[in-house]
């Protein structure tokens, strides 16, 4: 390794060129590297959305969901299959193991879809199959509003003009627009006129089909040309549908105009979008999994003028709920904190060395190391995200260590009176291997990231890479850039306060030692050095420090054993009191809440109560403090089945509301949510609410769960699962900090059960199909029984034609009973061939394997996720043993938390074991390795106490800080123990060696530790999501510094007191081996 230093000193211009190359290529990397909130998460998912208009949930579950599930079991890499069936839709989520070949999996899914459909009911449409990723979540909404256009016109403009343009915007994918419905030519039949003309809805459908069908155009060859012969088999003007005859022959003819009206409208409304309390249309903007959030949002904003120009002027487009704001804010905060950290680090180095030239050298290594890391991150396909930025910010303090140790050692050699070039060469040469060992130890701390799995690996690996790359760059800079710049910038005379203490491994100084010399008496040495100069404050501190160490050495055994015992007890106590989370909580300026009316409530009533809830929220926070509200009420149209991936609602009784608050209002969300719960419980007691994730971080960590607590109860009989769920709910309600406890599925959906008497229907010349078709046309539309198309001559786009009875004319049970069934007769009606009774059925059926599921959801108020998960597990246990065939599973963020903490704890233990083995191999001593690791308990104690003091939890960020503190602690200990062991071999006294090493290392330990602490202060005090990382580092370093200076010398003195001075080498040719003999010496030419 000395060759690295020698090569740099011999080629200083090449070193400078290398630094310029780093700056240049980092600039290129910064312009190309994607910027996002999170790293790419290896959680591959495929959604299958199967619409079947109007089909009941139980039939969809049995005929569709079960068939798909059986076939998807053949797909490679399947980890889990989740199925949801509501009226008209089955939604299937296929989760795959990390590393699955998704191109192959997609192909297999498509094959199994085709196989499964062969066994499904006639009329089953091909499903929409979408490859999805956990990070492919909405990053904003394009909102369409108009004062003059109808909602359907706005919907058509958004769907037919704007959405196709998304293909030209890089990184964007989008579901269909939310809020309107597909444009349709609607033939609205008057049921009274039908009866008066003895017609059925089915006759109207057949008449339209007979008079409006696309037909092939032939050719006729006349003269020189071949003429096409198109026929006006398609109606061009919607009003021409009125002239279609329905009944001809004997008696007066009956036309559509006699029994119906025709409107250029939309399919039956099943859902509304509401923006600021008014019906509107919006398109969620979805970034592709490999795209950058920031780039996608910037691309959308850049395309806004082009998008606006593509639609009528009276439709206004705006971009709302911009999630990139959080990304930009996170980047800006981390960059600011990193800059402040570097500044404070430089000031700390200046305070100790009192030489601005040294400060410049040290501080210059920080940006060069960071820029080098960015180049490498870009090369390995990483992004700039909250984890890589946290790693770089965390590394800033450690980066100082390499350069600072080198500069400090150069100063020590200069203070010995050596020529500058010699001092630099010898100082760099003697610490290059210890610094390399330190580099390996810090990298080893983060190495477990490579063996983690799932989200913990996806989150931890980018942070580990950023720290590792920065540390490698810092090590190389310390051996090349620092000595070159030191030769050019440092003065030849002594800098700062003078002290010619023992330099690391300086054999010339060691030779002057003997057992009677009191070189450890720093006070005598300093007075003898220069009586004309005053002793500096730092030297006085060192004198007191030496006196303290001498006293502590008299009680080494008690001190060391007491320290270990107390540390273990404190760690156990801290783990008992400290909470656990996946990531620190943030107070964003937006929230999302789901409102549930009693099952089956009409969409109009749900909309009214939604507006009432918005009004109450405005009263609580003030209208001026709300930037925008956006909501979706009701279900998704069957034409847009895929939309349920992004916003799932189980029916007209549900609404999902998003509220964006003014950031300047500084409103605390948790107390606000509690107020909303309280007010709505009084004003709208029938309304159940549940707050859901809205921020990118929350959505990604939730992995599709709507609440942090989610419990699935499975059984073959859904009633059995529901019965046991009530036991669990009773226990959950005893937990004071749980909120919004409810069952997610509508299990008691009101229904009119229509039981057809097939024998009676047959006697009247009817089949159950005849009855069903007339009933569907009357209660829904003919779109689900007979397809009919119309071509708009203006836009050139095709739309469906459907027959339906207006909803406002089907409002009573009698209207259902009086639906005519037979052509040319007012009787029989539905009531003549069927028994109609009111009942309740499941409005949603969820399935996992052979079990149907009932899901309990709950939110947490004022508690950490880990404590809540433990209490929920206890509540489930208190609910009693589930009946035979009933299973209970905890899902949601709690499961992810357990996986994450388990991975991190295992990783920390593994890192310590790896470091121990590496140190043992280097020092050739198990004792010295244990001595170096003796400061680790102090680091853990310090981090945990600081987190408790700051009110933080154990989470991914704080664990990272704790792990990094372990690495820094080991780095300080390596240098001290290396120094002490070298001195022991000469002084033959472990206590004297410990004193000399402590005296030599006190300044660099204090300097590097305080510099890193200073660098972490901006991050720790930021109040942002990365604050616990800084807090853990500061706490760990404070205790680590105390342990390194006070405990470590005593650990070394105690364990090495009776250790032999002989080398452990077995080589007879090794001069240091006790087996060495001159007769074995081999002469090499």
TrEMBL record:
Spell out the protein name for this chain.
Answer: Efflux RND transporter permease subunit
Which SUPFAM superfamilies does the entry link to? Multidrug efflux transporter AcrB pore domain, PN1, PN2, PC1 and PC2 subdomains, Multidrug efflux transporter AcrB TolC docking domain, DN and DC subdomains, Multidrug efflux transporter AcrB transmembrane domain
What parts of the sequence cross the membrane? 12-30, 360-380, 431-451, 463-486, 558-578, 904-923, 930-954, 960-980, 1001-1020, 1032-1055
Q: May I have one GO cellular component term?
A: plasma membrane
What Pfam families does this protein's entry cite? ACR_tran
Q: What keywords are assigned to this protein?
A: Membrane, Transmembrane, Transmembrane helix
Please provide, alphabetically and separated by semicolons, the GO molecular function terms listed in this UniProt record: xenobiotic transmembrane transporter activity
> Any keyword Protease?
no
Q: Does the keyword Nucleotidyltransferase apply?
A: no
